[in-house]
Design goal:
Blueprint (H helix, E strand, L loop, with lengths): L2 H5 L2 E6 L10 H14 L3 E5 L1 H10 L4 E4 L15 H10 L3 E5 L11 H11 L4 E5 L3 H10 L3 E3 L14 H11 L4 E4 L5 H9 L4 E4 L1 H4 L1 H21 L2
Parallel strand pairs: 1-2, 1-8, 2-3, 3-4, 4-5, 5-6, 6-7, 7-8
């Protein structure tokens, strides 16, 4: 079965930890991926070649690879330049994902200009476009990506206040390539609904693999309950 077939109507778990997080370690990410596989995940999304190499030793699942990198002249940070594409391709990830929003890339490139160069260099690689709006998803499909995803909904100026599931539904209806639901899929109910809307697969990240953020949500809820209790005394 091909990679997209393996992921059809399945759960993909994003195993990432940024440098300022306690779990920022390739070994830990490999164990996180193993736990995800044992829990029923059918794919992994991972950041950096180092983490991907460690994860490959722990699981044999399809991997969506990205490299997050900041540039002073751009807000794009998910696989922003051809150098990150080169590194991921050489590592041999199954799918390479990148920011496909309308935001200008490093060096002043638009997404369409960037992807034309990428596709010409690697015509047989599977590419996934992380978009934030219906319009961006349509542009990405026309540019020739293999998958579009709703990863960036709510994270760009042009998608501020948008509801990810609502955007997903519109994208599924508008494009013919597989659509992966990603971004704020923070409950099992949302993941289920995404598939019911026609998503090819669902990526869940923070709600499963980032205990610091999960703890913050619970702590906030508990602390607000304590404040309310004091106010009603």
């Amino acid at each position: 079965m091909d990679i997209l077939g393996q992921l059809n109507k399945k759960l993909i778990v994003s195993c990432q930890a940024l440098e300022d997080e306690p779990l920022h370690d390739s070994y830990i990410m490999s164990k996180m991926a193993l736990a995800a596989k044992q829990g029923g995940a059918s794919g992994i999304r991972a950041n950096t070649v180092k983490d991907i190499q460690a994860i490959k030793k722990a699981v044999d699942l399809p991997i969506i690879g990205i490299i997050k990198k900041d540039f002073s002249d751009s807000e794009v940070y998910i696989t922003p330049t051809i150098q990150e594409i080169d590194d991921l391709y050489q590592e041999g990830v199954d799918i390479i994902a990148f920011d496909a929003t309308e935001q200008v890339r490093p060096g002043g490139l638009s997404f369409v200009e960037f992807f034309a160069e990428v596709k010409a260099k690697y015509p047989n690689q599977l590419f996934m476009a992380d978009t934030s709006t219906l319009e961006e998803a349509i542009v990405a499909e026309k540019a020739g990506v293999d998958i579009v995803a709703t990863t960036m909904v709510g994270y760009t100026p042009q998608s501020k206040g948008f509801v990810p599931l609502e955007v997903l539904k519109k994208v599924v209806e508008a494009v013919k390539v597989p659509v992966i639901a990603e971004g704020n899929m923070d409950t099992p109910e949302k993941a289920k609904q995404a598939l019911e809307f026609g998503a090819h697969a669902v990526v869940v990240g923070s709600a499963i693999t980032r205990p610091k953020l999960i703890t913050e949500k619970f702590a906030k809820a508990v602390n607000s309950a304590i404040v309310l209790e004091r106010q009603t005394r």
